[in-house]
Design brief:
With 106 residues, this protein is mostly beta strands.
Length: 106
């Protein structure tokens, strides 16, 4: 019997940033973990050029390495420019696809 496919990792944005279009895709990998992961919650601030200038962790997945990966990915994200807009804030929730750790040969 085949296992069920793992749903992909996805994210959602709330706050003022919700209506600003990203210019680069946020590529979120699946994570290998022995247990289910909670969503990673972060608050991000984007400047008028579309660069992410601030990233604050607000809710942990339960795995510090996974949270670090999320914060690094969020820092590299880019949005469309919004001249005259100093810092626009939003919250990002990352729901992780979890691949079970295999017990295969090492």
């Amino acid at each position: 019997a085949k296992g069920r496919p793992v749903p992909p990792t996805w994210h959602e944005i709330s706050g003022d940033l919700r209506n600003r279009k990203p210019t680069t895709a946020l590529t979120l990998p699946g994570m290998k973990s022995a247990s289910a992961l909670e969503p990673t919650l972060a608050r991000i601030g984007v400047d008028e050029d579309g660069a992410v200038r601030f990233v604050f962790l607000e809710g942990t997945s339960g795995d510090p390495a996974v949270d670090r990966e999320a914060l690094n990915l969020l820092r590299s994200w880019r949005f469309e420019p919004s001249p005259g807009q100093w810092i626009q804030w939003g919250r990002v929730r990352v729901l992780w696809a979890v691949e079970p750790l295999g017990n295969g040969p090492r």
